[in-house]
């Protein structure tokens, strides 16, 4: 029913860097990034290809993040310039909890049917792979629903191909 999400491993790595970039020196703050990319397949998309990790300007604290309307407008302008769209809001939490709070739902970037909100534990210090270590929520029928491990494994594919390969002797 929903397209398979293809996520390059390098985007996962950039995501964790972006999430951690919201923390001032010697402090742990929640971080937020957006995954952007494109739908592939006609007439109905079969895949969502995540191509980019966008780090918005945000107000952050140890247990909270907030992105202003102006900052989201800059994100919107950026994705339009590159002919891509926002596919997911990704943010970090302290500790191991990946529970989606009401605030998390309010701060998700313009949710639409099939968009995602992803919670990365431990302020992303431990990375986000395997993806099942994160809380992954899909917007369905006007609300976010948490995906279980088998749904994550079925609906998401992490692409590990390198971006540059030189086979010259």
Which descriptors apply to this entry?
alpha/beta; globular; 169 residues; 8-stranded mixed sheet; 33% strand; two-stranded antiparallel ribbon
Terminal CA distance reads 46 Å
Q: Give the domain tally.
A: 1
- Average pLDDT score: 93
**What fraction strand?**
25-35%
Give unreliable regions as ranges.
Answer: none
CATH superfamily: Cytidine Deaminase, domain 2
CATH class: Alpha Beta
Q: Strand order, biggest sheet?
A: 9-8-7-6-2-3-1-10
Q: Kindly state the number of beta strands.
A: 10
**By helix and strand content, what is the structural category?**
alpha/beta
Please describe the biggest sheet, giving its number of strands, its sense, and whether it closes into a barrel.
Answer: 8 strands, mixed
**Computed Rg:** 16 Å
Order of helices and strands: EHEEEEHEHEEEHE
Q: The CATH topology, please?
A: Cytidine Deaminase, domain 2
Can you offer a commentary on this structure?
There is one protein chain. The chain has 169 residues and is of the alpha/beta class. The protein has one domain: Cytidine Deaminase, domain 2 (3-Layer(aba) Sandwich), CATH 3.40.140.10. It is 22% helix and 33% strand. It is built from 4 helices and 10 strands; from the N terminus they run E-H-E-E-E-E-H-E-H-E-E-E-H-E. The strands form 2 sheets. An 8-stranded mixed β-sheet has the order 9-8-7-6-2-3-1-10. Strands 4-5 form a two-stranded antiparallel sheet. Strand 2 and strand 3 (47-54) form a beta hairpin. The protein is globular.
């Amino acid at each position: 029913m929903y397209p398979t999400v293809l996520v390059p491993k390098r985007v996962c790595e950039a995501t964790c860097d972006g999430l951690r970039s919201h923390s001032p020196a010697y402090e742990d703050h929640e971080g937020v990034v957006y995954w952007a990319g494109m739908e592939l397949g006609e007439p109905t998309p079969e895949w969502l290809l995540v191509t980019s990790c966008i780090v918005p300007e945000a107000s952050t604290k140890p247990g909270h993040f907030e992105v202003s309307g102006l900052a989201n407008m800059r994100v919107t302008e950026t994705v339009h310039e590159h002919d891509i769209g926002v596919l997911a809001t990704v943010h970090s939490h302290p500790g191991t909890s990946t529970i989606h709070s009401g605030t998390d739902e309010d701060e998700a970037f313009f949710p639409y049917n099939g968009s995602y909100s992803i919670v990365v534990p431990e302020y992303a210090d431990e990375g986000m792979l395997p993806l099942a270590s994160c809380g992954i929520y899909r917007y369905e029928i006007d609300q976010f629903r948490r995906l279980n491990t088998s749904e994550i494994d079925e609906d998401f594919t992490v692409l590990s191909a390198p971006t540059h390969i030189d086979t010259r002797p």
